[in-house]
Amino acid sequence: MSGSMCCNHTSGYIGPVFPPTARPEKIRRMAAAYRARLEKLRAKVADLGEEIARLEEWIAFAEAQATRLEGKMTTLRTHGQADTVSTDMHLAPDVRARKNLKISRAKRGNDPFLAALAKRSWTLRQYAQHLGVPVSTMGSWRHKPPHGRPIPRAIAERIERELEFRATAANWPNGISQ
Questions:
Q1: CA 39-41-43 angle, 5° bins
Q2: Last residue of a domain, one of 90, 122, 146
Q3: What is the CA radius of gyration of the chain?
Q4: Which residue, of 47, 79, 93, 104, has the greatest Cβ tally within 10 A?
Q5: Which residues in the chain belong to E strands, given as ranges?
Q6: Are residues 99 and 76 in the same domain?
Q7: Residue where a domain stops, chosen among 66, 90, 114
Q8: What pLDDT does 146 receive?
Q9: CA torsion, points 68, 70, 73, 75, in degrees to nearest 10?
Q10: Distance (Å, whole) CA 124 – CA 108
Q11: Are the CB atoms for 149 and 140 separated by under 8 Å?
Q12: For the whole model, what pTM was predicted?
């Protein structure tokens, strides 16, 4: 790059200063060179961003593994014997979710609603949170009369759309309210 360098004291920018006789072609070439360099720098930044994301995933994995292994070291003394503490706290969230889903599948028995949830990899608790209702409320819609309560029609229709579990009185033992 030719041209003298100058510092603009108000912005702190240092860049080329062109004499009034500078040719527009030369200025265009220099601008194109800056644009090309800018694109290369942006590509490098994007690559570094992906690398940072990969490293953060590895850090999270290593932390989860370290926590899991440390959890195996925790013991309780029971009748003079050391037993490993049974806890899910050391499990990564996705592993804990899969474990809960397996437990849910084992508990569902012949319940068609729980089968519809499991078909889409939901537990009752997860789906209640998805709907924004307490788990106890969702359970009360499934209880046999007189211990349960009717499900609101809007929620029954939403469940029908999301789970393909028909919004009929036969599927909801306490009926459907308006």
A1: 70
A2: 90
A3: 32
A4: 104
A5: 4-7, 14-17, 75-78, 81-84, 151-152, 176-177
A6: no
A7: 90
A8: 81
A9: -80
A10: 10
A11: yes
A12: 0.41
The residues near 117 (Cβ < 8 Å, ≥ 6 apart) are 104, 108, 123, 124, 127, 163
Predicted confidence (pLDDT) at residue 134 exceeds the cutoff of 80: yes
The residue range of the domain holding 123 is 93-177
Q: How many domains does the chain have?
A: 2
Decide if 177 contacts 153 (C-beta within 8 A).
yes
CA 157 remoteness from chain centre: 26
- In the Cβ-directed half-sphere of 96, how many Cα atoms lie within 13 Å? 10
Instruction: Give per-residue pLDDT as tens, 16-27.
Output: 666 666 688 888
Peptide bond preceding 24 in cis form (omega within 30 of 0): no
Any domain includes 115: yes
The string of pLDDT tens digits covering residues 156-167 is 999 999 988 888
The SS3 of residue 68 is helix
